[in-house]
ApaG domain-containing protein (Dendroctonus ponderosae), 353 residues
Amino acid sequence: MDLVCVAVQQKLLPVSLRLLSSRRHYARLAEVGRLETPKAEGKYDTGQLILHRVFGYRGVVLFPWLARVYDRDLPQHREGDEETNAGVGKEVRGRTHTFYQVLIDQRDCPYIRAQTEAVTFLGNQDSSRSLYAIPGLDYVAHEDIFPYVSAEKAPLHHELFDKFLGPNPNRGALPLIPVNKPDSRLLVVDFLDPPFVAQDTLKAWQNKNHPWLELSDVHKETTENIRVTVIPFYMGCKESHASSVYWWRYCIRLENLGSLSVQLRERHWRIFSLSGTLETVRGRGVVGQEPALTKTLPAFQYSSHVSLQAPSGHMWGTFRMEREDGYTFDCRIPPFSLESKAEGGPATPPETA
């Protein structure tokens, strides 16, 4: 069920939160703020409150990333372009695009169809834990952001919010836009600055963990109206006396762009390592689920991990999908590279940053 909705009434745009009752199964709308004008150009600043266009959660921007997007659905070659074939996915023309590191409001986490512990790190070499996660951290594309002004005293609930961000003492508003008559209600409030600014803790944590947080490549492809987006991240290398094991996480979003419901039934992966091995992985669903992509809930997002005994490799594959009319098809997962980076220091948990 959609968690956040926008009610349009007399050209006034209140942002409303749908509160759920498990006993009576009804929804009640409560205003939580007002929309700002989305930015067609430029970037959103640290501290900007947002609504996610697809998943509907409330969040706040921590900092931006510039990524190369390889979209196989777009025309790839224009007059004067040079064709390249270096690396998986690189025969597709990459375009620079802005994404944002975002904190998710913990009140919304139970209702969204995206893993809220998807950003993971390798533990230290001497740690008994191989992985740990930062709850409520996400990557959001610029076009998936609806900026808004909160009407709540505590606009975002997350344990890292007060550690990373503080009130902006220099915030100033642009003139309000009147609607038709001078004495009528005002339409939209746009502010010159975001309501919050980065604290030193956030800056230090970003600098320390930049290699493990950095988003660099995004891959997209659509099959039978099912759009698959893949974002790989290098996590680091675990050394032992016998070998070195390189780790990556990858985030996958599936979105149904059609009118018929579709359910994911199986996954089929091919994983090639620079060491010369080719592995095939088959299984039911993903992360223990067989998500349905419907008209009301068209998207699903999850993360997983892969390790290789080589510093680079490639992944590609398909999802077996079943449509509501019984038609089954293989939805392509765009091929993507697994590339390692120069080792930095160990990842730092935010609570100790």
Q: What stands out?
A: Confidence is low (pLDDT under 50) at residues 1-24, 79-87, 175-188. Residues 220-344 form a domain with the Immunoglobulin-like fold (CATH 2.60.40.1470). The longest helix spans residues 200-213. The two ends are 36 Å apart (CA to CA).
